[in-house]
Amino acid sequence: MNQTLTQSIWLETLRRMAKSKLTTAALIIVLIYAVVALLAYCGIIAANWSQEVGTSYEAPNIQHWFGTDIFGRSVLRKIIKGAQVAMNVGFVVSMIAILIGVVLGAIGGYFGGVVDEMIVWLCSTMASIPNIMLLISLTFILGKGILAIYIALGMTNWVELCRLIRGEVIKHKDREYVQAATAIGASHVSKLWWHILPNVLHIVIIQFSGIFQIAIKSEVILSYLGLGVQNSPSWGVMINDAKVELMQGVWWEIAFATVAMFLIVLAFNILSDALRDALDPKLRGK
Length: 286
Description:
Blueprint lengths: L2 H17 L1 H21 L33 H37 L1 H16 L2 H12 L3 H9 L4 H14 L3 H8 L4 H9 L4 H24 L10 H8 L9 H28 L7
Main location: membrane
Subcellular location: Cell membrane
Protein name: ABC transmembrane type-1 domain-containing protein
């Protein structure tokens, strides 16, 4: 695939996505979350999230838009720090899963034989284990904390991508452009990296969006169970802390944490569908 054709496909993809107001709104939401997370990571905003700013359990008001928690801390600052954790987890986990899935899928699909059988067996084994049980087991083994979240989620979200990449590589490895590369003496690595993988890149991009939102939801679940983030705000921790407060009429912490998670997950779901419709060759002409 030459550079001009590749650029035209991406321009057409952006044009088709820009036509949808819903997709544009979803992209704006993702960008806002990303900017907020980056600013929080750099300490520009919500750096003093643990500071007491008011009395215990202040309802949302002009001074504290999202209210305060039991210790008088700003719920808004905690939401922002939770967004930082969520976006960090989503990005790092997606990178880990993509690395594992693309490498194993490409190797299995290209070389076939015993190598492919071993990779297919590994995929089948991983897929047969309930995901939540595997996640909990890995976090117990690795210990609590953000690093354990990265590793556990990265090791459990590559299977679907591996299967898709394997199938596409099997279809592409015997095509004319790969045979031409073989004729001029290209190595296996060169054919995979420079010729085959660029033609299956759309699958990686679509899966990146899907893995990102799955990682966010999984982090919230693990943090809710006490197996995730420690000593830092997380939407899962906030929901867990606030579940008892509902009986006292304190609704704002669990409500805003849930809405924050809902918006980013919904935005990534919309983007994932839009990317699939725009990039999948089978759907591009519809």
